[in-house]
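## retry 2 of 3
previous attempt timed out at serialization; input unchanged, resubmitting
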Amino acid sequence: MSKRMPLTGPSVWLGRDIVQSRRWIRDLPAGAAAEIDAALQGVKRCGLEWWSITKADFPLPALGPLFDDIRDELEDGCGMVKLRGMPVDRYSEDELRQLYYGFGQHLGTTVFQNRSGELMRFIRDEGAHVGRTYGQVRTTDAKGQSGTFLSSYARTLTNNLLRFHTDRTDVVGLLCVRQAKSGGVSRLCSTGAIHNAILAKRPDLLDVLFEDFYRSRLGEESKDPSTVYKLPIFGLRDGKLTSHYSLTFIEAAELVPGVPKLTAAQREAIDLLMATAEELAFEMTLEPGDLQLINSHVTYHGRTAFTDEFETGHSRLLMRLWFCMPNNRALPVGHEVLWREIEAGRLRGGIAQVSA
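## retry succeeded, writing output
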């Protein structure tokens, strides 16, 4: 019989309950937009490239208490924040890069999102070429039918549904600049709540989720597309949960020659994980000017499919940053393969850079 115990605390929530709460919602205080604009004009006068902006280059002295509050909520609270009121409608995309990156330096340290130095990603539908541009694998099923398996990078740049997953960073920041004509709704769930629900239903399958699963990112992290690593889906240290999960990475590993296929128990555990996430999730609608911040260790996120309408200006655009947080938690032993550093307060996450 499993000796695992239910998890407790504010990061363990049910979608039907948290949607009624305001603890995850923050609003920019009065005068903040003017302070942000003044900081932006300062970096423009200095001719700074967006990626070179430091916290000192983008002074926001009145917002210090807000940043402290957000960091606390993300690590020791419910694990997510929606900050409303970012002044996105008055700036060009180039100016928004400077603004968002400068603002982000007050939250944490930005880390790379791919192996070639990407610090900020524009999340939007880039069309049918995404697989050829950002990674795909041709596949053949048991009946001899050919297909295409898209990398996780490519999937983010389509208008398709994204399954529940985590990103390789302490905190994911998504700034909404424009929304689609329809769809594109953010979906979130508590990994602690998923843990508890599976413990109650099938403790044997919960144990499976604490065991190693093979993962691959189809060459996004290495020059060799066959690079794989092993990591559990769930881990605990000092009573705190961390979960790193993407079914796409697990499926990609199965395409690599020599990698063992999922066992029957692993498949059953993943099916239950996904079904439980669907059951416990809630939807968070992002409007232009909303900044969504998600602690990857304790939340899964996904999105619904969306439809753009360029003629009316309804073409979905989110700007993504990955943050290593100064108050981050210690991670379980063995997670070095993904995070490199696992002690609390260390610089970690993101994707290591590969020299040409």
